[in-house]
Amino acid sequence: MQAPVSESLLAAPAKINLHLAILGRREDGYHELSTLFYPVRDLADTLRIEPGHDEHMYMRCPENPDLESTSNLIYKAWKAFGAATGFQPGLFVTLNKRIPMGGGLGGGSSDGAAMLRWLNDNAGERALPLQALMDLAAGLGADMPFFLLDGPALATGIGERLTPTAVDLAGLFLLLACPPVHVDTPWAFKAWDAANDRPQASQSLTSRYMESKNPSSISPLVVSNDFEPVVFAEHPILRKIKEKLIRSGAVCAAMSGSGASLFGLFRNRGSAMSTARALQNDGIDTVVMDCR
Ligand code: C5P
């Protein structure tokens, strides 16, 4: 018999990768990374959790019914948590999708992490210590453990070894551009493998952000993404967006994750807003956030 659960509304924020270096391919096909995750709280999916009638989980996603499947990380998180702890309450979960999919913004992983966090908060004596919860999350998706933390973090390994890291972007404005392009992450890693087998692999467009105050434990913070050469070659519009961000006054800009979203950091809110409007006129969704 499970204890009754109460209704909750959860926010599952997006992330960007301020820096993403691919260090090499492992025997098991996964890739060693060094990446700096930064949460984007102003862009979030929401999960409405309501008590169900039995020990099943029913999921609705009004904007995208394709996501109502057992391959969704929300369902996988519920199933894995039940198997690990015996706490598997019956639930109705309504997912409102705001984070673009295939955007390199971690939406699916964040949704799954929000489910895990809620289950753990409601599991009473069966709750797991944070490290055990992070290990469970890592088994479901490489980006997922980050979303169990509450701030920026440096990730190594395949993305699961996390060190919370102070990143001071105070005074800057983040412009996130989400073009209607979907990049498949396994494809992007394979394309990187193919490009880096060649003796003359192309270089990523590096955008250095050197503030006099040290913005993170990475000094200076190098805003770059090793996926850019292969993803830009396949989707030239993304390179154009990056160039537009830089030309419009961004102090640095890069793609997030395996794309297709890009971000720029601006010193001036007006420049960020006018660039966002120009991108919207080209059919590109944008979010402007005060980094505080
Ligand atoms: O772990 P996740 O399901 O998010 O990863 C999706 C795919 O991306 C993996 O199946 C793998 O092909 C690739 N990947 C990788 N190296 C990583 C993370 C993901 O090759 N560090």
How would you portray this structure in words?
The protein folds into two domains: 8-164, Ribosomal Protein S5, domain 2; 173-290, GHMP kinase, C-terminal domain (Alpha-Beta Plaits, 2-Layer Sandwich), CATH 3.30.70. Strands 1, 2, 3, 4, 5, 6, 8 and 9 form an eight-stranded mixed beta sheet that branches. By secondary structure, the chain is an alpha+beta fold. It has seven helices and twelve strands. Helices cover 29% and strands 29% of the residues. Helix 1 (73-85) packs parallel to helix 2 and helix 5 (228-234) packs across helix 6. The termini are far apart. It is globular. Cytidine-5'-monophosphate is lined by residues 30-31, 33, 141-143, 158-159, 185-186, 189.
Please mark out the parts with pLDDT under 50 across 5 or more consecutive residues, or reply none: 199-203, 208-219
> Helix- and strand-based class?
alpha+beta
Mass-distribution shape: globular
Biggest beta sheet summary: 8 strands, mixed
